[in-house]
Amino acid sequence: MICEILCFLSLLVSFYALSKRELEVKVIDVKLKKEQEKERKRYVLVQVIAEDPNKIDEECLDRIIKDSVKDLYGLIGLSLSKPKVVYLDPTNKMAIIRTTLQGIKILASSLIKKDEGCGTKLRLVPLRAFGTLASARERIPELTKSFEHSQ
Question: Is 132:44 a contact under the CB 8 Å cutoff?
Fold first, then answer.
């Protein structure tokens, strides 16, 4: 009983002390880390092997890629990788896909799985990831020549 009374009195004293004081609330500016400020993007160079290359366009290829990522990894994988076709070269049969830094492996594994789309059989082979779109476009002729010599 004495303990309960002492607890009650200590609560009363603390409430009284808090009510007499003015509380100051300070707003502190918090700067985000560099990683959180800007999303890091990567550009994956992909070779498009198709039976009928004339049926493949950017929108169809973009839909195929998003569907394959969604089938394999679900909406979480799709939101992590955020794939988008930014360049399609039908003469060299190459495409460049923009993704996030965390989504490179998700994208590559889901591209290998796809074997049909745009009304034709196709195979998407991820070749290499680049940091900028310009560097990916520069390497297209070199990689095209190396594939022609190997076949």
Answer: no
62 vs 19: CA distance, rounded Å = 62
CB neighbours (10 Å) of residue 85? 20
Cα distance between residue 65 and residue 62, in whole Å: 5
Whether 84 shows a pLDDT value over 90: the answer reads yes
Among residues 140, 24, 125, 19, which one has the least CA distance to residue 89?
140
Residue 95, strand partner residues: 46, 88
Mean pLDDT of 61-70: 90
- Residue 96 CA to its chain's centroid (Å): 15
Q: Summarize the confidence of residues 133-145 as an average pLDDT.
A: 81
User: CATH for 44-150, among 3.30.1370.100, 3.30.70.3250, 3.20.20.70, 3.20.20.80?
Assistant: 3.30.70.3250
* Whole-Å CA distances, 54 to 51, 60, 72: 9, 12, 27
**Residue 8, number of CB atoms within 10 A of its CB:** 10
- Cβ 83 vs Cβ 99: under 8 Å: yes
